[in-house]
Amino acid sequence: MIISRTPVRVSFCGGGTDVDWFAESEPNGGRVTSFALSRHIHVTVNARFDDRVRVSYSKMEIVDDFEELEHELVREAMRLTGVTSGIEITTIADIPSRGTGLGSSSTVTVGLLNALHRFAGREVSATQLADEACQIEIDVLGQPIGRQDQYAAAFGGINSISFTGEGVDVEPLDLGDDVVERLESEFTLVFTGMSRRASSVLSESPEDESDRLARLRTIRTQADEARAHLECGDLSGLGELLEVAWQAKRGITASVSNEELDALHDRLLNLGASGAKLLGAGGGGFFLVHGDTTLRERLTAELGANHRIIPLSVDFFGSRIIHDGSE
User: Is the sign of the CA dihedral 15, 265, 229, 318 positive or negative?
Assistant: First the structure.
């Protein structure tokens, strides 16, 4: 049995500038400042006695031919790796695997590829895992998503990730232990209780295309500002930047936010947050919230009954094989 463990991601700033149409047309490309969260999706791959394929996730499929699989990410990962029969695949997530704004779908793809490659006897690099995940999701399946999630999941750590027509560049940020500890104590995730697939939000047409482009250019600049705040340990400035980034993001399309999300955002600020930004494409998922070290306690006391409160912890490993029964 092979087991891979792959982290989801949290994006501080820059989300939306990693889509190809923007990154390839802008002179400076796109950029995201993000980190891998120690919440994972585990994928197990095990040999079967027969040649059938069994896949277990929120439902279970057993097919004679992998082409019959409804789970398109599994189907295409099997096709790409050449592992197409006589296996059982199971995915287990620490958090819901869709609609959370944490890049879960891409995390599944990266983890699948890692486990299937190892099952076939191959060790592959983080770059190859991310590239192949993008190939499956964007090129093969035609999803209108960007490329940040796949690279964050594959590499792990805290990174500045650049996107251009020439490709993707992942630059790890060299932060001191004290900054990482403060990062983990001052930032919190608050689940909205709503979820929506990123592709459904990203595929919507904005009312004003020129306004969307201007907002994305601003968001791209904010990714550089977020990196600067991290590198100098100015987490208060980063928290305030989250608020500015949210205001730029929420006007990109009408479905990024709604009255319920706006009300929760305002309540977070009233409880003492210096900034709060909805992660991912919008429409639901998690708010990333910054405040002093006492804020999380207040959030738990006031919102914990209706909203899941999750502390931050950074995963510095990225996608890795944690069990290889063939060794």
Answer: negative
Q: Please provide the distance, in angstroms rounded to a whole number, between the alpha carbons at the two ends of the chain.
A: 10
Are 2 and 118 a contacting pair, CB within 8 Å?
Answer: yes
Query: What structural domains and CATH numbers belong to the chain?
Result: 2-174 (3.30.230.10), 177-311 (3.30.70.890)
- pLDDT tens digit sequence for 95-106: 876 778 899 999
Please write the tens of the pLDDT for every residue from 44-85. 999 999 999 999 998 999 999 999 999 999 999 999 999 999
Predicted confidence at residue 198, as pLDDT, reads 46
User: For the chain, give me the number of helices (H) and strands (E)?
Assistant: 11, 12
**SS3 per-residue string spanning 47-93:** ECCCCCEEEECCCEEEECCHHHCCCHHHHHHHHHHCCCCCEEEEEEE
CB atoms within 10 A of CB 132: 23
Place of tokens 């919190």: 188
CB 194 within 8 A of CB 183: no
Q: Against a cut of 0.90, is the pTM above it? A: yes
- The CB density around residue 83, as the number of other CB atoms within 10 Å, is 21
Q: What's the rounded Cα separation, in Å, for the pair 87 and 98?
A: 24
DSSP one-letter code for 314: B
pLDDT one-digit tens code per residue, 12-55: 999 999 999 999 999 999 999 999 999 999 999 999 999 999 99
Q: What is the DSSP letter of 34?
A: E
Maximum pairwise Cα distance, the chain: 59
Please count the other Cβ atoms lying within 10 Å of the Cβ belonging to residue 45: 24
Question: 204 pLDDT band (50/70/90 cuts)?
Answer: low
* Residue 272 in tokens: 């003492």
53-56 vs 87-93, strand pairing mode:
parallel
Question: Has residue 212 got a pLDDT over 90?
Answer: no
Q: Are 10 and 102 in contact (CB under 8 A)?
A: yes
- DSSP β-bridge partners for residue 45: 2, 89
